[in-house]
Design a protein that fits this description.
Strand content: 25-35%
Distance between the termini: 24 Å
Helix content: 25-40%
Bound molecules: coenzyme A
Largest sheet: 7 strands, mixed
Number of strands: 7
CATH superfamily of one domain: Gcn5-related N-acetyltransferase (GNAT)
CATH architecture of one domain: 3-Layer(aba) Sandwich
Number of helices: 4
Strand order of the largest sheet: 1-2-3-4-5-7-6
Oligomer: single chain
Radius of gyration: 15 Å
CATH class of one domain: Alpha Beta
C-alpha cells in the first residue's frame, strides 16, 4: 500500500514555469552541493521555456501543489527521460518511484519501446536506484560542461 496520496499528472505549461523551475532548483541543490552540476540545478526561466517547447514536461500535483516532475524527449536515439525530481520536503515517500513509473507509462503511450536516461556515475545512490528499477547501463559519456561522468542507461518498456 502506498503511504502517500496519488498524484494528478498534468503537462506543465507556461503558467507553472516559475513553480517548476523552483522545484528543480530545490530538488537538485543537493547534487550541486556535492559538485555535480546537473542541468536542472541551474535551470533558467528562459531555458525552461525552451524545454516546455521541445519536450513533454510532466508535473505530479497533490491538489494544487507541484510535488514531482519528469520530462520526455525524443531524438534520433529514442525517448529520453530527464529532469526527474521530487520536492525535497516530500522525499523518501515513494514519489520518485511513482514518477519513474509514470514516465515509463507515458513513454509507452507515445510509442516508445525503450526509455533512455543518464545520471552521474559518482552519485552515491542514483546508479543503484536505476539499476534496481530495471535500467541497464550501456556506456559512459563525458558531456561538455559537466563536472561528472554520465552513466547511460536503457530499459525496455
Ligand atoms: C531521485 C528522486 C526523484 C527520488 O525521489 P524520492 O521520492 O525520494 O524517491 P522514493 O521515495 O520513491 O525512493 C525511491 C528509491 O530511491 C532511493 N533513494 C531515494 N532517496 C534516497 C536517499 N536519500 N539515499 C539513498 N537512496 C535513496 C532508494 O533506492 C529508494 O527506494 P527505497 O525507498 O525502496 O529504498 C529525488 O531524490 C530527487 O528529486 N533527487 C534530486 C534530483 C535528482 O537527482 N534526480 C535524478 C537525476 S538522474
Amino acid at each position: 500500500m502506498s503511504q502517500h496520496p496519488p498524484l494528478d499528472w498534468r503537462r506543465i505549461c507556461v503558467q507553472h514555469l516559475r513553480t517548476w523551475v523552483d522545484l528543480l532548483h530545490a530538488a537538485y541543490a543537493g547534487n550541486l552541493a556535492m559538485g555535480m552540476n546537473f542541468t536542472a540545478a541551474t535551470m533558467t526561466m528562459q531555458r525552461g521555456e525552451q524545454f516546455l517547447a521541445d519536450r513533454l514536461v510532466w508535473g505530479g500535483f497533490a491538489e494544487t501543489r507541484l510535488v514531482a516532475t519528469f520530462t520526455l524527449r525524443r531524438d534520433e536515439e529514442g525517448w529520453h527521460l530527464n529532469l526527474l525530481a521530487v520536492r525535497p520536503d516530500q522525499g523518501r515517500q515513494g514519489y520518485g518511484d511513482l514518477a519513474l513509473s509514470e514516465a515509463e507509462r507515458r513513454a509507452r503511450n507515445v510509442g516508445a519501446a525503450e526509455l533512455l536516461l543518464d545520471t552521474a556515475a559518482e552519485h552515491p545512490w542514483l546508479v543503484d536506484f536505476y539499476r534496481s528499477r530495471g535500467y541497464v547501463a550501456y556506456g559512459h559519456v563525458q558531456k561538455p560542461g559537466k563536472t561528472y561522468r554520465s552513466v547511460l542507461f536503457r530499459k525496455p518498456l
